[in-house]
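Key idea: predict the complex, not the pieces.
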Amino acid sequence: MHKKQKIPKATITRLSIYCRQLELLEFDGYRMVSSEKLAWLCQVNAAQVRKDLGYFGEFGVRGVGYDVRDLQIEIKKILAVNRGWNMGLVGIGNLGTALLKHQNFPDRGFRFVAAFDSDPEKIGKNLSSGFIVRDIKELKKTTQELNIGIGVIATPASGAQEVTNNLVDANICAILNFSPLQISAPDNCVVEHIDFTIKLDVLTYKLKYEIGL
Amino acid sequence: MHKKQKIPKATITRLSIYCRQLELLEFDGYRMVSSEKLAWLCQVNAAQVRKDLGYFGEFGVRGVGYDVRDLQIEIKKILAVNRGWNMGLVGIGNLGTALLKHQNFPDRGFRFVAAFDSDPEKIGKNLSSGFIVRDIKELKKTTQELNIGIGVIATPASGAQEVTNNLVDANICAILNFSPLQISAPDNCVVEHIDFTIKLDVLTYKLKYEIGL
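Result:
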């Protein structure tokens, strides 16, 4: 079983994808699924599915497959998403405003509970998502009051490091960073970056070398 | 030199990050940079920088480092971002609307040139980003007229596969998919997914296992 073994990040990403497909299978009334079928649904191969799950234990029955519901529960435990998470968003621009309304977050147990900005023109504004923009200065107090576990940065690059420092100061240990800045955070804080244009660079690279365009 | 060798995707992602830091270094007036400094700026180690670049050739001078401007140009060639790309967006919801206004795309040579939806209520609408929403039925014609190279999907999961089929039918070979669906596309089409909640699953996993929360 998994203790302190280093698990590849790609495995964690795939576990998340497996979990989504298992939810869809359950919704469609399936009780069992083979590693082949799960693999096909997730566009990987079956050996990969077995290897990824193998890091964490024995979940399937040889020749029968996986229990759709049980495997979901196990993966959610592994990913620590078997409980709800409260998130605070910093940076109320176009992207931030859209993220607050993005239905995928609450659908998956990630709920925005507060929105912050440092711009006096924005602070106090009522957003159509129902949030009132709070002063970034209230971040620490609000984090305690509302039990915020994850900070989401949707500011331009220029403000992102200062916001990171604010989040760390408010004892937030997990940051999802949508700004293009490679923010630096202390070791006791985990960061994931979502940089749209890096994905586009990967895409154009693949176009050139895999497709030959 | 790179021909058909399989390069790790993580390397491509890091090349994109190196390129951004090189731009910032150039902006700050630097002409040369050591692999150690570049690595530090990108939060990786120097051996990784040298290994990643080593896949593609010899770019540095031992004991001197890399030419900030030349290395940028070389990486942009590798990533095939040394020219502009026209993009079409499908799905004019909150996220799609925000993406059309997102400054990072044009800043990096990726320019939206058209926006599509299938909703009769949205088709023909003037967006504040300056776009008029086109009927998805015009996708193929518009793609030719405007030389669209990349399709961006910002629909809910339910519509994403049909949109993918439309994009493929319009001879678009590169898709950036913001929907949570694992879309399937033919082999001559490259796809990158940006699923915000998968990143959050990775984040909560790291919180649990790396930070112990």
